[in-house]
Amino acid sequence: MNTVYTAEALATGAGRNGHVRSTDSLVDLDLAIPREMGGPGGATNPEQLFAAGYAACFHSALQMVAREAKANLGDSSVGARVGIGPIAGGGFGLSVELEVTIPELPHDEAQQLADRAHQVCPYSNATRGNIEVTVTVVDD
After folding, report:
1. From the DSSP assignment, how many helices (H) and strands (E) are in the chain?
2. In this structure, is the dihedral angle defined by the CA atoms of residues 29, 33, 35 and 39, taken in order, positive or negative?
3. What is the pLDDT of residues 32-49, one digit of tens each?
4. Beta bridge pairs of residue 80
5. CB 66 within 8 A of CB 72
6. pLDDT tens, residue by residue, 34-88
7. pLDDT at 140
8. What pLDDT band is residue 118 in, cutting at 50, 70 and 90?
9. pLDDT value for 13
10. How far, in Å, are 19, 57, 119 from residue 26 at the CA level?
11. Is a pLDDT exceeding 90 seen at residue 11?
């Protein structure tokens, strides 16, 4: 891989109940364990940040494959749900559900573009074989 950009961030404090900041300070956030996991809630958490990043990255990949296919995405969107839970053998694992909406295209054509985006998206490539990722096209 020929690296063209490197993001850098530092976590401080108590991990999930701490703080995270990127080196350029564009990301500068307190973190809190969600109430559902026994924490105080009230601040963002790593899973929300991962969901936001994956949704944005996947949407860019979708736009790229649509341009190649000369397809009009119109008012498209990508939503991401990132789940966390205990796994067999100890520790925790993640799962991802991506919901793609492309109102201007027939369902089958939208699904083909979403499937192609899943092959080129850096987040999809990084998670493939590591965590369960489902990609679903929803009709608006």
Report:
1. 3, 6
2. negative
3. 999 999 999 999 999 999
4. 98
5. yes
6. 999 999 999 999 999 999 999 999 999 999 999 999 999 999 999 999 999 999 9
7. 72
8. very high
9. 96
10. 13, 18, 29
11. yes
Q: Which DSSP state fits 3?
A: -
User: Cα(126)–Cα(63) distance, rounded to whole angstroms?
Assistant: 19
Specify the DSSP class assigned to residue 129: T
Q: How far apart are CA 11 and CA 21, in angstroms?
A: 7
d(CA 78, CA 113) in angstroms, rounded, equals 12
Question: What domains, with CATH codes, occur in the chain?
Answer: 1-44 (2.20.25.10), 46-138 (3.30.300.20)
17's tokens: 């109940």
**Structure tokens belonging to residue 120:** 């080129």
Q: Where do runs of H (alpha helix) occur along 25-104? A: 46-69
Distance, C-alpha 21 to centroid of its chain = 19
